[in-house]
Amino acid sequence: MYTIYNKRALTRNERFIKALVYGGLATLGMTLAYGIVASITPFEFSIVYVLFGYGIGYVIRTKGRGVQPRFSILGAVLATLCFLVGDLLSMYGMVLLLHPLILIQALFMNIPSYLSANISSLLGLAFRAYGVYAAYISSRIV
User: Fold this and answer.
1) Domain limits for position 34
2) How far apart are CA 114 and CA 126, in angstroms?
3) What does the pLDDT read at residue 6?
4) Minimal CB count within 10 Å: which of 33, 41, 68, 73?
5) How far is CA 114 from CA 42, 50, 59, 65, in A?
């Protein structure tokens, strides 16, 4: 009987670490891009959240090639971080990256703006939620 070994195959943990690294880099790039563009323009691009969610999920799926639910959870967490920090960068500018304590304060000061009851904020929140869901469903091979 012949036994064939694939020496170059990655284990589940190695694939997850690879997905974490590449997904983190993609999240960082998308966060900075959105923060810079949104701080320059006076418009809010809510559809971008859905595209970023699918983009983060795509990077995790293609680089990690995982089938476990932890890949989906990773995609949802990274998308949430991307949206929160991107919103803060668009409001307060790049000074947040230089002073991490201001970032934490700004995060807690920004939470009431997500929970206001006007139609614009509710639609923005719905697009963000769908972006997180898009990252969740597209992060693993099913």
Assistant:
1) 12-137
2) 10
3) 59
4) 41
5) 18, 17, 27, 34
